[in-house]
Specification:
CATH architecture of the largest domain: Up-down Bundle
CATH class of the largest domain: Mainly Alpha
Oligomer: single chain
Structural class: alpha+beta
CATH superfamily of the largest domain: dinb family like domain
Number of domains: 2
Distance between the termini: 20 Å
Number of helices: 10
Shape: globular
Strand order of the largest sheet: 4-3-5-6
Helix content: 40-55%
Number of strands: 6
Radius of gyration: 18 Å
């Protein structure tokens, strides 16, 4: 758990530092997420982290106490709660929630199971999902601020960190679920994903002996998985019909 938690904290701190540079008036700027401002986006992160900490502490009773039959409505409730807070309060809300999650995760094993929304997942996967959501919403916030702040080279939205490995691994691991949700049959031989990460690192997931392969840049693969890019707008290469289906269904949540 040490590696994923270290990367999770680093991803959160990176976004936190970016938020510190945003003027109060710009917190009301719209993001690419329809209907959400920067303020709303951080409120969503704060509400989710706070709920996550409660679930880790209380287990299934915390899930049972909440109506998750309409996930969009549940998500909107967290955003509405944030709209009654000043932006400084929203940041502190998020900081407290994420710190509670990291502390709780640091006390359990990677394979321990955590009930979450509609399924029970491993603690390591839970941490990866929190990193994924922080990164994805960070993309929205940075897009909203495009051209409004001087940006260092290593802060450019298209400049990814090695922490993206966790998002890529999560997206690949969710392919069977994505196929099932779409009513498609996942190929028995599995799907191989071969990506080039930051600094020309090579990330491979899936069986080596399958002829169903997705190749390309990790940044594009992950952006497709969090629905910030369309696969047709990338240079990702799908080898085999099932690989094309996988790209169409790719998701990290």
């Amino acid at each position: 758990m040490r590696e994923i938690l270290s990367d999770l904290v680093a991803e959160q701190q990176s976004l936190d530092q970016f938020l510190q540079r945003i003027h109060e008036r710009d917190w009301k700027l719209p993001t690419p997420a329809k209907g959400w401002t920067i303020h709303d986006t951080v409120s969503h992160l704060a509400a989710t982290e706070t709920f996550g900490a409660k679930v880790i502490a209380q287990g299934q009773p915390a899930i049972d106490a909440v109506d998750l039959s309409d996930l969009d409505r549940w998500t909107a409730e967290g955003v509405r709660k944030g709209r009654g807070k000043r932006y400084q309060e929203v940041i502190e809300w998020w900081r407290n929630g994420r710190a509670a999650v990291v502390d709780a995760l640091s006390r359990i094993e990677a394979r321990d199971r955590i009930p979450w929304l509609f399924a029970t997942i491993g603690a390591k996967t839970f941490a990866s999902a929190r990193l994924m959501e922080t990164w994805a919403h960070g993309l929205d916030i940075r897009a909203a601020m495009d051209g409004r702040l001087p940006v260092a080279e290593d802060e450019e939205p298209e400049t990814d960190s090695a922490r993206l490995y966790h998002v890529a691994r999560l997206a690949h691991s969710m392919l069977p679920y994505a196929f099932a949700q779409a009513g498609e049959t996942y190929p028995e031989q599995g799907i191989r994903v071969q990506l080039m990460g930051p600094k020309y690192s090579r990330w491979d997931f899936g069986p080596e002996d399958t002829d169903i392969v997705i190749k390309g840049m990790a940044g594009e693969f992950c952006r497709v998985a969090v629905h910030r890019m369309r696969a047709t707008d990338t240079n990702l290469k799908a080898i085999g019909p099932d690989a094309e289906t996988a790209l169409r269904l790719l998701r990290a949540y």
